[in-house]
Amino acid sequence: MATKEKTPVENAQLKDIISHAKEYGFVFPSSEIYDGLQAVYDYGQMGVELKNNLKNLWWKSMTQLHQNVVGIDAAIFMHPHTWKASGHVDSFNDPMIDNKDSKKRYRADVLIEEKAAQYEADGHYDKASELLVEMGRLLGAEELDAVRELIIREDIKCPISGTTNWTEVRQFNLMFSTQVGSVAEDSSTIYLRPETAQGIFVNFLNVQKTGRMKVPFGIAQIGKAFRNEIVARQFIFRMREFEQMEMQFFVRPGTEMEWYNQWKEARKKWHQAIGIPAESLRYHDHEKLAHYANAAVDIEFKFPFGFKEVEGIHSRTDFDLTQHQELSRKKMQYFDNDLNEDGKPYGNYIPYVVETSVGADRLFLMTLCSAYTEEEITEGDATKSRTFLKFHPALAPVKAAILPLTKKDGLPEKATEIFNSLRYDFNMIYEERDSIGKRYTRQDLIGTPFCIAVDHQTLEDNTVTVRDRDSREQVRMPIGELHSYIDKAVNFKSIFEKLA
């Protein structure tokens, strides 16, 4: 059995994945009957199962495996002062640039990063690094004219027009705003949250006091966020409505880098535990730090369009809690009565924060891209291609399919009995249409790990044939062993043990 060799950066493969995602119920363009809405997508019947499995695994990995991490669910709407304190009102901007010939708009930093990636692909690593450092310096200093000059100097062309006829670089605020209030004259501006982290920070004391939490401890949250992206592209990689899974870990000042490195390693290990190959992941240290950070790194995955961020780990210092303390005039201090090396209490301080932030949609896309497999298989004298989704069994939308060999002779009744015995513990499918081979293929295309064939022998000795998705090998086993056999493969415990 030979697997096709894939080109690392191949947009055609992304097109195949997008097509597959729609055809088999994973992702649909939003409002498609009205020609859709750019950069907004809906998750189909298979997609929502996969996404929920990913979110559930992340949640349990954070809150169930760590006694000092708890969860909350904060509201999307927050007091406008929240975003003033966080810096989003004044500095949540992307550098925007337009090509005068194509009339297309781009993020200036993305154009430069893609040029650096090109240098890196050509083996010019120093040149790539120097370019990114220069970009970080110019953007940090708000030298937007110099950013435009850098783009022109590097001969960065518009992909559409092929020219360097660029406008000036302008800053573009990414927050969506709306009005709250029943009467227009009395309404006030409120924002759709651009991140979930601030809901954690404003609830820091609520959670700490009611949960009697001791530093170091973390607060986790999964929720929707909204950004008016200049260029939303590459399928669900960059959208205007997306979902974040964030954990803010509160630590003593001076210990933040120790915890930063611990979470950096732990989070990469988590991605590998769900089946992402180590060679498809890498760290990328930030050249340009956000205004709140003293260290930041991305965990990047090798998508069909290149290495891109899936998760960020940031040392946010005490910026957020300090800002909220100053603007709200509510103390955000923690009293630490543990003893330091000199035998004295640590006393009052504003904790530092280490953040782990992973996009649920990017995690979904990474999982889908990694699972999408094409291979050549030999059956008898014939060779044919096979496509299947090689999900970790614990993440697969459907865990097993019950397939009676025929629609008669009592096989559907026996298959239904088996289906009903397993359906309360596992997400199952019962299917009796078409040949058994076609049904196997359909289950492969949605990533079902096990197909259970019910045949005439089943009626005689209560055994069934279980086909493995990846190897296509088939084993005969008693019906009574099915539950433990499936559970061993699909239980989150198989992943948790790798994280211990």
UniProtKB/TrEMBL annotation:
Its EC number is 6.1.1.14. ATP binds at residues 227-229, 237-242, 309-310, 359-362. Residues 130-393 form the Aminoacyl-transfer RNA synthetases class-II family profile domain. It catalyses: tRNA(Gly) + glycine + ATP = glycyl-tRNA(Gly) + AMP + diphosphate. The keyword Oxidoreductase does not apply. One of its GO terms (biological process) is diadenosine tetraphosphate biosynthetic process. It is an enzyme of class 6 (ligase). Substrate binds at R107, E195, F242, E243, Q244, M245, E246, E355, T356, S357, V358, G359. Keywords: Aminoacyl-tRNA synthetase, ATP-binding, Cytoplasm, Ligase, Nucleotide-binding, Protein biosynthesis. It holds the Pfam family HGTP_anticodon. One of its GO terms (molecular function) is bis(5'-nucleosyl)-tetraphosphatase (asymmetrical) activity. InterPro entries: aa-tRNA-synt_IIb (IPR002314), aa-tRNA-synth_II (IPR006195), aa-tRNA-synth_II/BPL/LPL (IPR045864), Anticodon-bd (IPR004154), Anticodon-bd_dom_sf (IPR036621), Gly-tRNA_synthase/POLG2 (IPR027031), Gly_tRNA_ligase_bac (IPR022961), GlyRS-like_core (IPR033731). The keyword Ribonucleoprotein does not apply. Belongs to the class-II aminoacyl-tRNA synthetase family. PANTHER family: DNA POLYMERASE SUBUNIT GAMMA-2, MITOCHONDRIAL, GLYCYL-TRNA SYNTHETASE/DNA POLYMERASE SUBUNIT GAMMA-2. This is Glycine--tRNA ligase.
